[in-house]
Amino acid sequence: MNAGERAQYLRGEIERHNHAYYVLDAPTIPDAEYDKLFRELQAIETEQPQLLTPDSPTQRVGGQTLAGFVAVRHAVPMLSIRTETDTGPSGARAFDGRVRKLLELADDAPPVAYQAELKFDGLAINLRYEHGALVQAATRGDGETGEDVTQNIRTIHEIPLRLNGGAPAVLEVRGEVYMSRPDFERYNERQRLAGKATLVNPRNGAAGSIRQLDPKLAAERPLSFFAYGLGVVDGWPLPATHAAVLDALLAFGLPVCRERAIAHGPDELIAFHQRVLAGRNTLPFDIDGVVYKVNSLALQRQLGFVSREPRWAVAHKYPAEEALTTVEAIDVQVGRTGALTPVARLAPVFVGGVTVTNATLHNEDEVRRKDVRVGDTVVVRRAGDVIPEVVRVVPERRPILTAEFIMPKSCPACASAIERPAEEAIARCTAGLFCPAQRKQALLHFAARRAMDIEGLGDKLVEQLVDNGLVATPADIYKIGPERLAGLERMGMKSATNLLAAIARSRETTLARFIFSLGIRNVGETTARDLARHFGNLEALMAADMTMLQTVPDVGPIVASSVAGFFAEPHNREVIADLLAAGIAWPDERPPMTSTNSAVAGKTFVLTGTLADLPRDQAKALIEAQGGKVTGSVSKKTDFVVAGSEAGSKLDQAQQLGVKILDQNQLMELLKS
Ligand code: IVH
């Protein structure tokens, strides 16, 4: 394909996507992909201007008036903003450099003041107020002519129908209509429950509602608005700066985003860019970058425009969080607790700053709902540090012959039965540690850095050890000999020695790590630490019943039942005995809090009567585990008398001596505190 043919092809593609996006409100590809096509076409046309045609999509800024809406001509055109393609810090420097050069500022002239704002990801709107009343709202359209969407805009509660204070004769306010993320989630949830179509993303939610011909339908979709600029103004003396314009708009009663700042020179622009990027995921709405604007309106006028873009503003984008790729396979992974997770194997794609090759499909229902199939082109999303996920399929790119995904009927690793409780989304393999996949995950968890910390025992090695039958339980790790190990694939004598040393080192650990390493369901690092601190030793923990377990802070019935269930399993007890026999040990975990932190430590208790669900010897064990003392008779030295039903003379004595009396609940509270 030569450059002319390529340009022709790109024009066709871009027009098709434009139509889907602007007219049908059903985008076919992510913005980043579209931008890529657009930029490629721009590059060809710049390099070879003879290839530029008047009807090229680069010659207009997109959008076609829908038959149903009345066209509105913008007296002041609605411009677009130049995008700094370099998403790193040099983008801000390049912009500041251009501004300084155009203003002919000397190198030692003070830094230019900018207003830094967020770049909202919604739909640009022009609101026209006459003598304070909202008379018209229009979309941007192609920048010259938009559509009258006044009826739909009136449904947005945030947009005032009347302005506050001494409103000018004419005030056109420009800004972005958007859908907040919580509103988007709520709306989709409601649609799902009603079995109706859901929105693809908040931006399309906003665009779709505004360009909805039936205002009643538009009103059902919750939208918001941020003002960021002006159009026609009559009868209002303009302030000196853009920041002051925004403050004035706020005073008129219009919503203006608070996340904005004055930045002096490029370093402060870069700092703003980075601060916003770090907080991007905590914002309740989507942004795709930040916008820098020269703050002084006089300087803005001096800088002027080039084609449809002001020279005084620039958009500094963030790496796209969505990208397109194809599904090469759908595997079902078995997790440590037997949970089956469908995972899409993808053609490698760069998204959210990293190359992604796998994306989670969460569970069977999700795959069904999204109807993801092998061979599909999909949108993958990676926002922040979250696990990449498949957002949706691009149906028009589906190959002819594809098959619906079917969840296996038995465990893909061990062929055992799968169980999926009616009210749960997760299906699980029922084989426990007899399932090699679960066993491998359990071993990896056991050896993990935050657990027993066996350096070098990674997934490749665990795979071999289990498949060769060398290791079945964590205790077997301590029985491997150097010869067997060195005989494994990619394992020389040297790495075998290193691994054995790491295994030997791991014998010396802490009780908290040991508990965590057992992989008890619902017991993470923090809970393991709490359990270790509370019980002080493994025997006490293993002997604890549901009631005793629930005296541990933050341990409720679910965790307690996981723990009790785990230690009730004879197989687990055997493995633990084996591990201890292999020499795993930790310093006595007599908790430091017994002396200082616990309200029980150092206190003397007397127990009397029957406690409803705490046998007396257990109550005694709990008190002693926290450094308290239990004696048989009440004296002045007694700190607490714990009284159950049918308490006798000891209760009377306590009352006489003024000793504090606790019931079972108060004792539990004290033990938890
Ligand atoms: S100012 C003269 N400020 O970005 C500049 N635009 O390409 C006019 N946008 O679709 C626009 N956030 O709707 C401006 N803080 C912001 C913005 C913003 C988002 C959108 C705008 C337009 C596009 C400009």
By CATH, the superfamily of the largest domain comes out as: DNA ligase/mRNA capping enzyme
Number of helices: 25
In the CATH hierarchy, the architecture of the largest domain is 2-Layer Sandwich
Nearest-integer average pLDDT? 89
CATH class value of the largest domain:
Alpha Beta
Taking all Cα atoms into account, the compactness measure Rg is 34 Å
User: Strand tally, please?
Assistant: 24
Which regions have little confidence, pLDDT < 50, spanning 5+ residues? 61-65
Quaternary organisation of the protein chains: single chain
SSE-based structural type: alpha+beta
Q: How many separate domains make up the residues?
A: 5
Can you summarize the main beta sheet? 5 strands, mixed
Could you give the order of strands across the largest sheet?
2-13-10-3-9
CA distance, first residue to last residue: 74 Å
Question: How is the CATH topology of the largest domain named?
Answer: D-amino Acid Aminotransferase, Chain A, domain 1
Q: Considering DSSP H and I runs of 4 or more, what fraction of the residues is helical?
A: 25-40%
What binds here, in terms of ligands, is: 2-(butylsulfanyl)adenosine
Residue share in β-strands: 15-25%
Describe the 3D structure.
The chain has 673 residues and is an alpha+beta fold. The chain has five domains: 3-59, Orthogonal Bundle (Helix Hairpins); 82-317, D-amino Acid Aminotransferase, Chain A, domain 1, CATH 3.30.470.30; 322-397, OB fold (Dihydrolipoamide Acetyltransferase, E2P) (Beta Barrel); 429-581, 5' to 3' exonuclease, C-terminal subdomain (DNA polymerase, domain 1); 604-672, 3-Layer(aba) Sandwich (Rossmann fold), CATH 3.40.50. It is 37% helix and 20% strand. The chain has 25 helices and 24 strands. The strands form seven sheets. A five-stranded mixed sheet has the order 2-13-10-3-9. Strand 23, helix 24 and strand 24 (660-662) form a beta-alpha-beta unit. Helix 1 (3-23) runs antiparallel to helix 2. 34% of the residues are buried. Residues 61-65 have low confidence and may be disordered. 2-(butylsulfanyl)adenosine is lined by residues 79-81, 117, 119-120, 124, 176, 228-229, 291, 310, 313.
